[in-house]
Write a structure and sequence with these properties.
Elements lengths: L3 E2 L2 H10 E2 L12 E8 L8 E4 L2 E2 L7 E2 L3 E4 L1 E10 L5 E11 L4 E7 L6 E6 L3 H7 L8 E8 L7 E7 L8 E6 L8 E4 L1 E9 L7 E2 L3 E3 L4 E8 L8 E6 L6 E3 L6 E3 L10 E7 L4 E8 L7 E3 L2 E9 L4 E11 L1
Protein name: DUF4397 domain-containing protein
């Protein structure tokens, strides 16, 4: 962990009150709380959590610090970032009361000009007690989901074991922007997370297989994404170690666009063919950029024809979308 003290007194305070705990190991302290910070502000600079003047390592958009132990009591909290000149600016300040055993997952969201900080609190006591019970072979984890995608709709969130279809999935919650589910306990194992439009019976977002094998609380953050496919979302899985795992929508199509930079071809036609589909792009003029077009994941053979000369410029070029 990089130390970024603001002055000598802050460093002494940090040494006295902050202990790193980037895993789920138990601590010997009888009075401690836990904090973790995630940056979901899509147009932000790197931002950092500050507690009692101690500044943790700054993290970029869609990144998280580990879960850390912190002493109980009243804490002065701040989130800082940088302005367009690279100078530090304060984004959020508050006084926070930390009690023994508290778990806080802080999520910065919203536009960087006016960000908001979500304080998501959860309880893992029952899970830890079951996993520590030597009389039975428990292996439990917990799941909670937060909606931090600016401008996106309300989604129903479903959770199922790997191999089960959507009809067998359990609904965790219906989440609007800035809301979160409670923590729900499951056996460790492999699962799939789904998003559906409110009240719909068909998902619009399906993750790949989630390997949830640790005895921890997995925080799934629905955030904005700017890649191909709809909806414009990505789901990050955040455990206690930081370094979120990204899960794209496996049901989404790829997208492409074409720019005609051929010097001697004033207008071209393009054909893209796979075993599943064929797409045509007609009359693309010289130095023109086409609009984005959705296309299924596959291998495609590409043919390019010069319209004016009625000449094949390229035939069966291989392009792969995956």
């Amino acid at each position: 962990m990089n130390l970024t003290p603001r002055n000598i007194s802050c460093l002494l305070l940090a040494v006295a009150t902050v202990a790193a705990c980037s895993s789920d190991d138990e601590s010997d302290s009888s009075s401690e709380a836990y904090v973790q910070y995630y940056n979901a502000s899509p147009n932000s600079t790197a931002t950092a959590l500050v507690l009692d003047g101690y500044q943790y390592t700054a993290i970029d958009y869609a990144d998280s610090q580990p879960r850390y132990v912190y002493g109980t009591g009243t804490v002065e909290m701040e989130v800082v970032g940088s302005d367009e000149l690279g100078d530090e600016i304060s984004l959020y300040t508050s006084s926070l009361s930390l009690a023994n055993g508290d778990e806080h997952f802080f999520v910065l969201t919203g536009d960087y000009s006016e960000p908001e900080l979500l304080d998501i609190q959860y309880d893992r006591t029952e899970m830890d007690e079951l996993n520590d019970d030597d009389s039975d072979d428990y292996s439990k984890m917990q799941v909670l989901v937060a909606h931090a995608a600016v401008g996106e709709a309300t989604y129903d969130v479903y959770f199922a074991k790997e191999g089960e279809d959507f009809n067998a999935a359990a609904m965790l919650d219906s989440l609007s922007y800035k809301s979160n589910s409670g923590e729900v306990m499951f056996d460790t194992g492999e699962y799939v997370l789904y998003l559906a439009e409110t009240g719909a019976s068909v998902p619009i977002y399906t993750t790949a297989t989630l390997d949830l094998s640790s005895n921890t609380v997995y925080k799934f953050v629905i955030r904005n994404s700017y890649g191909p496919g709809m909806p414009k979302l990505t789901i990050d899985a955040v455990d206690s170690t930081g370094s979120p795992t990204q899960y794209a929508n496996i049901d989404a199509n790829a997208e492409y666009r074409v720019f005609n930079a051929l010097i001697n071809a004033e207008e071209i036609d393009i054909t893209m063919s796979s075993n599943q589909e064929t797409q045509h792009l007609y009359d693309l003029e010289q130095y023109e950029l086409s609009e984005f077009t959705a296309i299924g994941y596959s291998d495609y053979g590409v043919t390019i024809i010069d319209n004016s000369a009625n000449e094949i410029l390229a035939n069966n070029l291989l392009v792969t979308f995956n």
